[in-house]
Amino acid sequence: MRESVALYKMYHPVAEVEAAETHGQCWHGETIDEGIDLCRYQLIEPLFREYLPKKGRILEAGCGPGRWVFYLRRLGYDVTGIDLAVDAIAAAKKYDPTVPVLSADVLHTNFPDKHFDAVISLGVVEHFEEGPQRAFEEARRILKDGGFYFVTVPLQNLNRLLIANPLKELKRWHQKRKGVGYAFEEYRYTRREFRNLLHEAGFEIIRETPDDYKSSKNIGHYVDFPFLRHSSKKWELNPAGKIVGSIFRSLTPWAACAGVMCISRKKV
C-alpha cells in the first residue's frame, strides 16, 4: 500500500493489540442482545433500510458475533456472516445455532463468483497494513454486477487531525522512550482518500454518511479520549464529554464522528 494513501497509521502497544478495543474486538464485554440493540442507535442503520435489497443474498464480511446479522435478519433480510474470530463465531452459535455465521477469511472466501447482491464490511479493511485492496478484490468477485458494497472505516476527521492524533503521537513517542513496543492497529482515512481507493478497485460511490451513534451514545470521542467516557455506561460520555461532543457536532456531523460509510456499486 502506498504510504501517501493514508494520512495516519494508528499504533497500539504490543501488549494491547489483541485487547478488547483493538483489531475490531470492541464487542468484547457486550452480550449479543446488547450488541443487537446498539444497531438502532447507529447513524448507518437507516441507510441499510434504504439501500439493502430486500430480495437478495447479503454477506457481512467480518461480522464478529453477528449483531448486524441478527438485526438485519429480524428485518427480513437474507444475511450471512463470516469472521475468523473463533470466540465470536462460538458466541453467535450459542445465541442461535441456526444463524448462518461461518468461519471464513474475508480475503479468501469459498463463495462462487457473483453470488451476493450486497456485501457489508464494517470496521474491517482498515486493519490490513498492506491496504484494503485484497478485501476489495474479493468483495468484487463475489458481488453480482451492480451489487452494493457497504464499507465503514475510521475517519481522519477535524478532531483527530487537530487534537487526538498529535496527542497519540506524543504519548507513543514518550512510551517508546521507555521501551514500550508498538504494533500497527489501523489506518484512518480522509473521505477523499477512501473514495479514491474504492474507485480504483472498481466501485462507483453512491453515497457517504458519518458512522457513529446517535446522541447520547458516542463512538468517536469515546474511542479517542478515554477520560471523556462515562464511568459505568459503555459508549456514553461523561458530562464533560457531552459538552465537547455537542461543540463538535454544532460545526458539522463530520467533525468528530468515528468513521465514514461509503455505499458503492460494483462497476461492470
Descriptive overview:
The protein has 268 residues and is of the alpha/beta class. The protein has a single domain, classed as Rossmann fold (3-Layer(aba) Sandwich), CATH 3.40.50. The protein is built from nine helices and nine strands. α1 crosses α3. The radius of gyration is 18 Å and the shape is globular.
Biggest β-sheet strands, sense, barrel:
7 strands, mixed
By CATH reckoning, the class would read Alpha Beta
Lateral arrangement of strands in the main beta sheet: 4-3-2-5-6-9-8
**Amount of helix:** 25-40%
Named CATH topology: Rossmann fold
Average pLDDT figure: 91
Shape: globular
| CATH architecture classification | 3-Layer(aba) Sandwich
> What order do the SSEs take from the amino end to the carboxyl end, as H and E?
EHHEHEHEEHEHEHEHHE
**Low confidence ranges:** 1-6, 20-24
Given the structure, what is the number of helices?
Answer: 9
- Would you count the extended β strands for me? 9
Beta fraction of the residues? 15-25%
Number of structurally distinct domains: 1
The H-level CATH homologous superfamily, spelled out, is: Vaccinia Virus protein VP39
Summarize the structure.
By secondary structure, the chain is an alpha/beta fold. The protein has helices spanning 32-38, 45-51, 67-74, 86-95, 133-142, 158-177, 191-200, 220-224, 239-251; strands at 8-13, 57-61, 78-83, 101-103, 116-122, 143-154, 182-188, 203-211, 259-266.
Based on the model shown, name its key terms:
alpha/beta, globular, Rossmann fold, disordered N terminus
